[in-house]
Design goal:
alpha+beta; nine-stranded antiparallel sheet
């Protein structure tokens, strides 16, 4: 009775189906059955009980499958938990309606550095210097336009050749007196000659020199100065001696007078400046002892 009672029998587990074996999977060819139409009955088969039935013919474009479709696999891996993004902290002093600013992780915001006070001091000094230079240039321009400064002039009014002869045929002795005329063409401005030297040349060779005492000239004034040039025992070459002898015989002795002056201009007591003046005169006198000025040409420049 115990063996036949179903309550005393051990529980039986359901039989598990045998897993499919790997191999080609065959799918029946698609049928042309359309809804609403009656499917055609399959043709009668000649299968008889006790005989094996032949498989249906395969279509011409059939390709066997070596791998089951992905739908045949069931993924039992649990899905990853959803990631929660942390909200950025609110900005200081910003409203709740402002959108947060996202910064790129590879960009670095430069830090603000304070400027050195020494750099500010140097920049201020440079700015002040250039402002002073600009104002000084403007002042000089205004003074120049108002006073219109011009250079003084040096000229020779008269010349007298008192003596000119050669000792031993090559030693020159000469005495020449000049009346120099200094002119200040400025209508507004005082001129002072602090240094004045006059040199005498013959055929580009220096033969005499003299110094003139300093003097001053008011605006639009001219002044005469006696310049006495004496040559004593100056050696000349043979060609130079012959050339001077020929000029004395012809009554046309040619000399060159060069002046070097240090001048200081005073423009109404506002602007004072100094500069050098260079004068060059070419004169021609008659034969001594009463040689007089025949021709002259003078120029003065800075």
């Amino acid at each position: 009775m115990r063996d036949n009672n179903p309550h005393f029998l051990p529980p039986q587990l359901p039989e598990q189906p045998e897993p499919p074996r790997p191999g080609p999977t065959f799918y029946p060819p698609p049928s042309d059955h359309r809804p609403g139409t009656s499917a055609a009955a399959p043709p009668p088969s000649d299968h008889r009980p006790g005989t094996s039935a032949a498989p249906p013919p395969l279509p011409a474009n059939f390709v066997p499958r070596t791998k089951p479709p992905e739908d045949d696999y069931i993924d039992l891996t649990p899905p990853p938990p959803p990631q929660r993004h942390k909200a950025p902290p609110p900005r200081r002093g910003g409203g709740s309606g402002q959108a947060p600013h996202h910064h790129h992780p590879h960009l670095r915001v430069p830090s603000r550095t304070k400027t050195n006070p020494l750099a500010w001091l140097i920049a201020a000094c440079c700015t002040l210097f250039w402002i002073l230079v600009i104002f000084a240039l403007l002042a000089i321009l205004v003074i120049y336009l108002v006073f219109r400064p011009r250079n003084p002039k040096f000229d020779i009014s008269s010349a007298t050749l008192n003596a000119a002869y050669l000792d031993m045929g090559y030693l020159l002795n000469a005495d020449l007196t000049l009346l120099a005329n200094f002119t200040n063409p400025n209508k507004k401005g005082k001129v002072e000659f602090h240094y004045a030297v006059v040199d005498l040349y013959h055929d580009k060779s220096p033969i005499a020199s003299t110094y003139i005492q300093q003097f001053s000239m008011m605006n639009h004034e001219y002044k005469f100065q006696d310049v006495h040039l004496v040559t004593s025992q100056v050696g000349l070459s043979a060609d130079h001696s012959q050339k001077l002898r020929t000029q004395i015989e012809n009554g046309k002795v040619r000399f060159e007078v060069k002046g070097l002056f240090r001048v200081r201009s005073d423009l109404g007591g506002i602007l004072k400046y100094s500069y050098w003046l260079y004068s060059h005169c070419t004169i021609m006198v008659s034969s001594p002892p009463t040689g007089i000025l025949i021709a002259k040409r003078c120029s003065t420049k800075r």
